[in-house]
User: Fold this.
Amino acid sequence: MSRTPATFIREGVSLKPFNSFQIEAEAALWTEITAEPDLLRLQDTAAFQQQPRFVLGGGSNILFTQNFPGLIIKVRIPGVTVLSEDDHEVVVRAGAGVNWDELVRYATDRGWAGLENLSMIPGETGAAPIQNIGAYGVELESVFVSLDAIHLESGDKTVFDREMCRFGYRDSIFKKEHKGKYLITSVTLRLSKRPQLRLEYGNLKAVLDADGARNPDIRDVSRAVRKIRASKLPDPAATGNAGSFFKNPVLTADRFHELSERHPTVPSFPAGNQVKVPAAWLIDQCGFKGKRIGDAGVHEHHALILVNHGNATGRDLLDLADAIRTEVQERFGITLVPEVNIV
Ligand SMILES: Cc1cc2nc3c(=O)[nH]c(=O)nc-3n(C[C@H](O)[C@H](O)[C@H](O)COP(=O)(O)OP(=O)(O)OC[C@H]3O[C@@H](n4cnc5c(N)ncnc54)[C@H](O)[C@@H]3O)c2cc1C
Assistant:
């Protein structure tokens, strides 16, 4: 791909290799950026000014439901830089195009704690703040310092600190007011040299015990998380999926009390002064686990994961998701909210 404005935009690019659902869809226009100046140059082109645009990371949290009529901007900004370091902590800045799990390995290999529970989450670093990625009791927010972003319309650069990002459960300002408005170029994280391990979530402790890690360090934790994830989650390279399709509903204590009166076996876990209910349980109760309509299906072991068995279209998967939402709404009076970005 040449880097002059006239030619560095390609036409009619298949998105199949660029989304973990492996959905066949086409981008009318496509470009890749590896540094901020690429974006500034891009902003001068007619393609950029006239078309709808979409910023793409690793494509692991997206469902393409149609061909994209405008310009896809694929972010490939590399590089990890140590900004400061002392005996207690290290502050690192990673380019938005750095593979998230490579960043996790980079940190854990050096004994820098904070990312180990977030091992093996697919995608790129620039997307991590968008939904405040989380796993095994830890969210990005806990290590986040700031991010650099460029406003797509104005080209203005803004540094967003943690407060400005308004992180929530699988949520941030970039899924609300600022949805689609900024391109994140880098993310800055504060990692600790004095780890405080978080082992209370799921079977993490049990797996560490079974592996004989009596005084585990962050590498042991990362290894255990990888082991659990590899055994539980479908590999998108083999079966198209985007991880959890829906968020787990968060209910008020009163609302949960009502629900548990009617459904005494409903599982739950605390979420501040509210209660989180596993969406997988709700979906399973509605009989969807393992269900398949054509090539769109619900994973046989994970009711929260929708899968593409081969040639499902984004529409097929969306129809299935809609059927699930309707059924859960009718049966439990709970509205499931997609975690995946529908495009
Ligand atoms: C098997 C599997 C397991 C998963 N497990 C987890 C998990 O445990 N926890 C979790 O939180 N998520 C999980 N996910 C979801 C996914 O990995 C994360 O949401 C990840 O952060 C998405 O990164 P991405 O680069 O693929 O983003 P994409 O899918 O490319 O994009 C996601 C959104 O971010 C926007 N975006 C991407 N990059 C940028 C940028 N540089 N600037 C501005 N906007 C941008 C896109 O426009 C889009 O709206 C899982 C997915 C899969 C397939």
